[in-house]
Automatic annotation (TrEMBL):
Protein name: O-methyltransferase-like protein 3
InterPro entries registered for this protein in UniProt: COMT-like, COMT_C, SAM-dependent_MTases_sf, WH-like_DNA-bd_sf, WH_DNA-bd_sf
Keywords: Methyltransferase, S-adenosyl-L-methionine, Transferase
Domain O-methyltransferase C-terminal: start-end pairs: 95-300
Record-linked Pfam families: Methyltransf_2 (PF00891)
């Protein structure tokens, strides 16, 4: 129906174009009209709406497909999963609700990697999700809090920023657009498969194939940074990542986490549901301020400051983490 040059289309035409029974089309379209995805123009004749037009956006389409094919399937098994495993939050990325629903011993991301079509859908969904947000470098005072003191030290051996789990390097490239003086002092880290398609385009970004749960190879960088990474993992794995990073930190180093921080009360529906999705698919969680503090403290570190996005609808923050004063 969408993309057709016709203003409206009949149930008979829809049935013919989709190799479907006309009665089935009528019954399905009755629901879609009721929900606002189409409108009637007479009996058995339909026109698109703004809602159905929105579904032609690749990111929105991918969101619907992934949510239905993966997340909804997993969450439909949650009552059965908890009955069998006990009523407590899952903490094992390879033995949680996702594995129970799909009958696999692979983690969520390993499973996607084994199914390219699902992986492509998920990646399209995530790319669209990022594009809807104001980038953290547009509201976090990077120059005042990082770049200026780094330049004042003028240490030619000290890397400026290590992007851990940085994928295709989107954040580093954005940083170079705003601060070209950082060229040659940035490091992109991720698993080998994630780095194989990375294109530098003359940005002079160093790359390291690295597992964030193993010793950090870059020592003494000014900043160790992650973007929406820790909410993909349960607490104990995050603690291990923070400890490994701590071992690589120098006197002037800090960790910057770009994450979501749930409110303690009256959590918006989208973010409350996102936490359940983290639990279902990843045995992980979205965290509140108190949960972030507890997590960081358990790793032997301390939160120095939290910056919040000016768009309060996002609940997006940058959390600065450092060593406790006695360890500095």
């Amino acid at each position: 129906m969408i993309g057709s040059e016709k203003v409206s289309i009949s149930a008979q035409e829809l049935a013919a174009s989709s190799n479907s029974e006309e009665l089935l089309v009528v019954r399905v379209m009755r629901v879609l009209v009721a929900e606002g995805y189409a409108a009637n123009e007479g009996a058995r004749r339909y026109t698109p709406t703004a809602l159905s037009a929105a579904l032609t956006d690749p990111a929105i389409e991918a969101c619907v497909v992934h949510s239905f094919d993966v997340t909804a399937r997993v969450q439909s098994f949650l009552p059965e999963y908890f009955q069998q495993h006990g009523y407590h939050s899952p903490v094992h990325p390879k033995n949680g609700p996702f594995q129970y629903a799909f009958g696999t011993d692979l983690s969520f991301f390993e499973f996607l990697h084994s199914q390219p079509k699902r992986a492509q859908t998920f990646n399209t969904y995530m790319a669209g999700n990022r594009s809807d947000r104001q980038h953290w470098l547009d509201w976090f005072p990077f120059h005042e809090n990082v770049l200026r003191t780094w330049e004042e030290r003028n240490d030619s051996k000290e890397m400026l920023l290590v992007d851990m789990g940085g994928g295709k390097g989107h954040d580093l490239k954005r940083l170079l657009e705003k601060y070209p003086e950082a060229k040659g002092r940035l490091v992109l880290e991720d698993l080998p498969g994630a780095l194989q398609d990375f294109e530098d385009h003359g940005c002079s970004i160093a790359t390291y194939a690295h597992d964030i749960f193993t010793p950090q190879p870059v020592k003494g960088a000014a900043v160790y940074y992650t973007h929406f990474l820790l909410h993909d993992f349960p607490d104990q794995m995050c603690i291990e990542m923070l400890r490994q990073t701590d071992q690589a930190m120098g006197t002037h180093s800090c960790i910057l986490l770009n994450e979501i921080m749930l409110p303690e009360t009256d959590c918006p529906p989208f973010f409350a549901a996102a936490d359940i999705t983290m639990m279902s698919n990843l045995s992980a969680l979205a965290r509140s301020k108190d949960q972030w503090k507890t997590l960081v403290h358990a790793a032997g570190l301390v939160i120095r400051k939290i910056w919040m996005s000016p768009d309060l609808r996002d609940w997006e923050v940058v959390i600065e983490i450092g060593r406790r004063s006695s360890d500095s």
